[in-house]
Design a protein that fits this description.
single chain, Jelly Rolls, four-stranded antiparallel β-sheet
Amino acid sequence: MNTTDLLRGSISLPKGAIYRLSEGLGRRVESLGGSLWITLDNDRRDIIVNDGEGFSIDRGGDALISALDDARFVLLDPAAPRPH
């Protein structure tokens, strides 16, 4: 994988900033640096994604991605199903 392409498409958030993602079902949040707190509509979980980790959004509705410290992340589209 060419990580330069990931950095070009990444989103930077300073500590305390919030990124709103509308209808993110199936999208994946991958942290390239820093820690993120993900909050999903009508979901009681506290989802923390640390540097090098990811989370696939598993419900419809909006998602809030908050930077717990200066952070950088990418949003990946759902993978296409593999043929059998």
